[in-house]
Amino acid sequence: MRILTCLCFSLVCFVGRAQVRIYDPARTVERSVEYRANSRVNQSIDRGLDKVEEGIINAFKKKPAKPQPQNQNGQTSTTDADNPPADDTYARPGNNRTSSTNASEAPTTLKAYSRFDFVPGEKLLVADDFMQDAVGDFPAKWNATGSGEIVTIEGVPGHWLALGKKGQYLPEYISNLPDNFTLQFDLACSNPFNFYSTSLHTAFAALKNPAKEFAGWGVFKHNIGTGTSVSMHPMAAGAKSGSSHVEVFENGERTMNNDLLVNQFWAGGRNLVKVSVWRQRQRLRVYVNEEKIWDLPRAFLPDVAYNSVVFALGDMHRPEDSYYLGNLRLAVGAPDTRNKLVTEGKFVTRGILFNVGQATIKPESFGALKDIANVLTENADLRVLIVGHTDADGDDATNLTLSKRRAEAVKAALSSDFGINASRLTTDGKGETQPATPNTTPEGKANNRRVEFIKQ
Asked: Which structural domains are found in the chain, ordered by start?
């Protein structure tokens, strides 16, 4: 009866709006079921967002299998490489790409992330920017039941995995999700995006045979075993926002199910965001840009070996609707900042990120900086040396200078944004001269891009 009611309501709305297009009733029911809880959610949106969204025109247009979106907030750096390719690898011939964007908004500042308490895991295991895969190909280290391809996005450096077909998508290089892990990725969508097109589901599952079982974690199909699924959709019902849905399954039985609005992700405005997932034992926290959308104390089951991440799509209402994934980073281990700095005398973080080839700190670094600032505030006599490190890409002398500038930027941020007396902080940079891991893989390079805090 509830489904029939939602269907009838949807049909009345279509007639009232004099829509000429005939909508697929099956898809109407599916999307009505997926979002029926949104009608009970407070629809009021922070009006200040409207001002932020003014002037941002995100034109996600797919050429034959090639999109042309631009980024949000005027940001054009979403890769972690220290030096961009000199030959502008991002503007590949044949893509009809341009170097300009339509986004007029200034870059987001650290202060905008004042409530962002996300701190990446201590050890970085995965850093996949898809640069090892050719445009037009499906990534070599992924498995899938649907189709996808590597594309470029206008105004944003790097490669992206475009997903626009029903199916499940498995990054095979992820084989363990311990009690403490963080997963970050950039998420974009085409604009416009139809309300009746599928959400993007991200499942953290316990699979005995991932190569065979991952196909069971599709949309409305999470009945194969144990796992936690978080979905994102850029068009909520009746609001200038997106929405998110969370489900928890234990041995095929759904034990948790909830929906909410997401201010930061919206196809009509912010259609390029950073998603950050943080597991601490049973607790799950999910952030979209600086907005914490989920903080669930019992989202993961104790004594369960979660080992796979599965992205899944249902049906797209329009063939031109797509999602885009970029810059996946998986890190493990809970940072023990105070113990390592105060007791052991040294703390290393890969959670302070910078714009490409620059000393500008990315706003999503706020949580890592705040973590350090808290230790320095609690230990007023503590003095530290801040040391910047880069990977081996680019010129040696340039990297050395860059590492020193980045250390100075960290000092300035701790002083100006967190109130740490600058006299307690000194800086240095080592460039690429002290690699923590070989610079032969994306993960190795990402681990070498780090900031060290050394007790003085």
From this structure: 2-40 (no CATH), 48-332 (2.60.120.200), 337-455 (3.30.1330.60)
